[in-house]
Design a protein that fits this description.
Chain lengths: ~400, ~400
Amino acid sequence: MRCKHRNVAIIGSGMSKFSSHREEVNQPEMIHEAVVEALDDAHLTIDDIDCVLHGNMELFEMVHQPDMWHVLGSGAWGKSGVRLTTGGTTGATLACAADNLIAAGLHDVVLAIGFEKLQEGHTTGGITNMADPLWGRSLQTGALTGTTAQQLIDRFGGDRARYAAMKLRTIMDENAMRNRKAHRRLRLDRKYIKEAAENSPPLVGELRMIHMCSQSDGACAVIFASEDKVAELGANAAWIVDHETVHREETLILDSGKSTHRVAAERLFARNGITDPVHDIDVFEMYDPSAWWGLDWLGEFMLCEGDEHLKMVENDVIGMDGEIPLNPSGGVQGSNPIGATALVRVAEAAMQVRGTAGEHQVPKPVRRALASGFGGTLWTVLMLLSKEKPALEAKV
Amino acid sequence: MANGVSSRPRVAICAVAQTKFEAAKPNVRIQGMLWEVIDAVRRQTGLDFGKGGIESAVTVSDDVFDARTISDGAVTDVVGAHYGSEEKVAADGAQGVYYATSVIVSGHHDVVLLAGHCKESQAASRNMVTHLAFDPFYTRPIGLDYLAAAALQAQAYLARSGVTENQLAGLVVRARQWARQNPVAQENATMGRDQVLASAMLADPIREAFMYPVSDGAIAMILASEERAHAITDRPVWVTGLGNCHDSFFLGERDLAGNFALERAAARAYAMAGIDDPREAFDVVEIADAYAHQLPQYAEGLGLCAPGQGGKWLAEGGPDRQCVNRSGGMLAGNPLMLGGMARVAEAVVQLRGEAGHRQVSDAKRALAHGATGPAGQLQTVVVLETRE
């Protein structure tokens, strides 16, 4: 692991209900739902929080510096705070920032809040607006892209690739059915995997509506604490072992280099002695914006060669009872309040380590959990959590 | 502030660079502005990107001012983050200093590039942008924006402190005189008090000359751990105190003439830096004075004078005595998102003895301040020192 001056753990998390239209609450009210649940989970009150981190994407709701208004629901009045935004990775960046701020000794207890209320804006318009106005914007289709689907079909054959993507989608839905917070719970049936795709409207190329993540309203709050504070509170802790951020130049990738997912995984695993990720990691919460990306990225994160990742799906290795359950929460295909989504991955991974995931707790001991964030132009943030408190290594 | 780490590792700012601030830079894109200052800090330090050099980047920008979702996506290449790490602070640049310091003290990285940009000239109306910061139910329908919020703050502050419009005009005259000595400042044409008082009334009592001008520009800094700092520069400037604090959102819930958030931010930073009496502690002070009345008001909040005594402090020559805003401050122009970052940059330039005709002699400790949000809802305080 990386040299670090003191250990940091997640001791509580909370989420609003995710849905397409949370019309009964405004933004700070929705955030308040998540904050209250996180405080209750950690057995703390707002007075115990030193610092509040906040993130989302301003152009989705067109609220400038929304952390200012959201003080009404975040509880940041009188407290320190930082607003960090890195696109879809925002929530994972907030988790990294909480780790940095506590490890640095600047704060003891940090509350990180990610949120989005996508119904209040135009999501695809907002994402399209990410591209360079001169070079890329006229080519943009937001997050809707059929490229990966076509690449998988070209590589593994149409029947096999389409089935694997849709089986992954079905497993995600089975998991979402166990998560009451999830937005889309479709009750997909393994008997009709082929038909469910064929009957879904096409969006771009082989990407169909059933494959794509939702656009959701929702907030997530996670409470991080220093090693001393965890001991003082006797808290049920999920320890942060390490994290890695890998960004990439925005539009034109002129080299055929590795994906940021694979690079981030290689770096994180090498630092932490993980040689066989499928075996060494007990559960993986992946930011999987579509079934096709989920299938492809499973291979990238698990450092698969050839068709290993397709076999993992075909053989239920990623199912709830498999060797490495993928997204017991239902993942991003189940719920996607973008500014919260990557923090939800960290929160869900921590819940699995802390054994607090309830109906979607995986039926095996969880010693190590991995969470990924995805954003921008295929950026990656990875965070590794453990049940056991990491040993701090001396600086090399 | 937490006390969990007894021997907190130290962080130094090893280099700073600022573009010339201008009302508009129509011939250069944000990436070009950034490259000018990033290339400058690379040349100052001899560092390149990657292992053994700049390990990660913290950027400062704003999606709405850039009219671009995920504004940092536009600068990944310029800040050297291709297959590397970049994290964006979406607030005043002093918050970027706050966060970048933690990235190093935590032990995660040793050398961090902090780079911020803002092109306020691209917004058709800055008030339209800051209007969007108000909630759509109660405060947006009555037309609030940051200028209107600052005007309400000014009304409350002038009433309590006794600061006069004539005194505010004097601050504008002073700011522009000092700005003539600052090569990066925007407004360096001198103005007489009469001219200032004849400038257009924007939102009573704020006149055009009392408000910071629209600016384009970029700033970059290199921050490093103690062990790396000495190898990078022989004039490291140490970050010895950091504090920030939020006030409430609704203006009616706040004491607009007071300094609830700033007093707490300052107390946190001073406790970390071991400062008991801020009146005597600093050789150089840089206050984020986006509006003229904020200079005495925030001087109160920073403890440079007693609460409510800002008028007396001005009358007795406090700003000159305590070397406040020799850069010209925000009234002389710097991009809005970089207000606090420019204050830190000026403090570093002063502490390194590189401030030319505006140099404070023998400057060893500096105070830099930044503010975000309506009427300074989020306040940030940074203490910088040269001592080993």
